[in-house]
Write a structure and sequence with these properties.
Layout lengths: L1 H12 L1 H8 L3 E7 L18 H8 L2 E3 L2 E2 L5 H10 L3 H4 L15 H7 L3 E6 L16 E4 L7 E7 L2 E8 H14 L6 E6 L36 H6 L25 H31 L6 E7 L4 E2 L5 E2 L5 H4 E2 L1 E4 L10 E3 L3 E2 L3 H8 L14 H5 L8 E6 L11 E6 L2 E5 L13 E4 L17 H17 L24
Parallel strand pairs: 1-8, 1-9, 2-14, 3-15, 4-5, 4-8
Antiparallel strand pairs: 2-13, 3-12, 5-6, 6-7, 9-13, 10-11, 16-17, 17-18, 18-19
The protein binds calcium ion.
């Protein structure tokens, strides 16, 4: 009798709590532009201190081996939204709009009853700052935006919002998050930082003045590399070039000119400190609103960035700093805050859409390339991928990187540079044993002892190309590395 009474009492008392527990999670997706995977103190950076981002990792899941499938802003962003490789979503350069009819995870959440908002850099469709489908609230700007005083299109009204970009978009996000609502929500916050041209806010302008910065030693180990890498050195994307305006007289390969590289690097780091402040503000707001633990917080970068490795700046290539990206997810129902996880297996941009839809209880679209990592995080997944395809097409407007088709496994990487007309490759390929050579110092492609593994990887690359549905791998003709600077308008 007493038991029955207890059951009655429990049944009577628990519904509101049970409902709260069953409520669908909110999603706060924070996307940085060109943030290197290692530019967080939680990822081991020796100089940057990012306590707020670190806290997300300490209370959540740190995906240690996350990669983009194309290291370029717009294609990578479209892969995050759609779960598809670039050839399938069609955004293969930085000037293409995300197709309106293409399913995206924000659109699917919206159809499932979520209120969806986008604030900040969208960067698909260079000159279009208009509202996009899939979002109830939409704030962006044309082009790259500016670190100071950007003109935004705020839900239909164009106005210059004074101040530092990172804080302006955080203010807008805070206002949106404070609105009373009954629906679950998705807020997608697109930072400009730390994209070039790097300008920290005033209080962080001198944050790294005392840090000595040199070219990485791999910049001087190009002997066994393909010649296009050496040709890139004095260009827009090489360490002897203009360094996004941080070097006024170029090319300059004198040792003294490293001061320009150091100044550029310090400025890049400075912009990241403001992002960390922004993460802290949003975390605090969710905490105050009682929404922290029912919100999936994603902190991610769209692509990596070379900072002098192999003599390169910018991204696009398949070298590690270009393709590795930061990814941290805090959601106590995925990983309890007292039990943070580090996930080692290979996770990709294309996994974001199916994973977030999975966590929100929404069916992902059929025939996408990515997979939900939910099971991988909670219990491990023996069927998880052991290799992936990387894919980049030569750009006439940025003639500093060839066509790239490559495969990366847990241990190895093979990179091919197809000419584009089906003829035999004209650039030397690259082969690295990452397990022993994580900095990609020693290209083993000509080592006869590695002929077997090279052949295996070549076969795996062909298999992956077929697996993602590329039947006729069309790509531009490689017109070679050129010295010309890109058009002023698209830098
Ligand atoms: Ca980017």
């Amino acid at each position: 009798m007493r038991l029955a009474f207890l059951w009655f009492l429990l049944a009577f008392l628990t519904p509101p709590m049970a409902q709260a527990q069953e409520a669908r999670p909110n999603v706060l997706f924070i996307l940085c532009d060109d943030l290197r995977w290692d530019c967080l103190s939680s990822a081991g950076h020796p100089h940057l201190k990012t306590p707020h981002i670190d806290r997300l990792a300490r209370e959540g899941v740190f995906f240690k081996n996350t990669f983009c499938t194309t290291s370029l802003c717009s294609p990578s962003r479209a892969s995050i939204l759609s779960g598809l490789y670039a050839h399938a979503h069609g955004v293969t350069n930085n000037f293409t709009e995300y197709p309106a009819e293409m399913a995206s995870f924000p659109g699917l959440l919206q159809s499932a009853g979520y209120e969806t908002g986008y604030i900040g850099k969208y960067h698909m469709g260079e000159e279009n700052d208009e509202k996009r489908p899939d979002f109830d609230y939409f704030v962006t700007h044309k082009g790259q935006g500016k670190y100071f005083d950007t003109e935004f299109n705020v839900d239909g009204q164009r106005k210059t919002l004074p101040g530092y970009y990172t804080h302006v978009v955080t203010d807008l996000a805070e206002s949106w998050l404070k609105k009373p609502r009954t629906k679950p929500w998705l807020m997608f916050l697109g930072h400009k930082a730390p994209h070039s041209f790097y300008f920290p806010e005033k209080k962080y302008e001198h944050a790294f003045d005392q840090v000595e910065v040199r070219y990485p030693d791999t910049a001087f180990q190009l002997q066994n590399k393909p010649t296009w890498i050496k040709e890139r050195l004095p260009t827009w994307h090489g360490i002897y070039g203009p360094l996004f305006d941080w070097r006024k007289k170029f090319p300059d390969d004198s040792p003294a000119a490293v001061k320009d590289f150091a100044a550029m690097t310090r400025a890049y780091w400075g912009t990241i400190l403001s992002v960390d402040d922004s993460v802290g503000r949003l975390y605090r707001l969710l905490e105050e609103n009682g929404q922290l633990d029912n919100t999936i917080i994603v902190f991610m970068g769209d692509n990596g960035l070379l900072n002098g490795e192999h003599g390169m700046v910018d991204k696009r290539t398949m070298h590690e700093p270009s393709i590795r990206i930061p990814l941290i997810v805090r959601y106590p129902k995925l990983a309890p805050t007292r039990c943070p996880r580090v996930v080692e297996p290979l996770v990709l941009t294309v996994d974001m859409a199916p994973s977030l839809l999975d966590l929100c209880g929404v069916e992902p679209p059929k025939n996408i390339h990515g997979r939900s990592w939910r099971k991988l995080v909670t219990e491990g997944d023996p069927s998880w991928r052991r290799s992936f395809l990387y894919h980049y097409n030569y750009e006439k407007q940025f003639p500093y990187t060839p066509n790239v088709r490559g495969v990366r496994t847990d241990e190895w990487k093979l990179v091919r540079y197809p000419h584009g007309d089906g003829s035999p490759d004209r650039h030397m390929a690259e082969l690295y044993h990452l397990a022993c050579d994580p900095d990609e110092r020693c290209n083993l492609i000509s080592d006869p002892r590695c002929a077997g593994i090279a052949a295996q990887l070549r076969a795996e690359l062909d298999r992956l190309i077929t697996e993602v549905g590329i039947t006729n791998d069309k790509m531009p003709l490689d017109e070679g590395v050129k010295q010309q600077l890109p058009d002023q308008k698209i830098r």
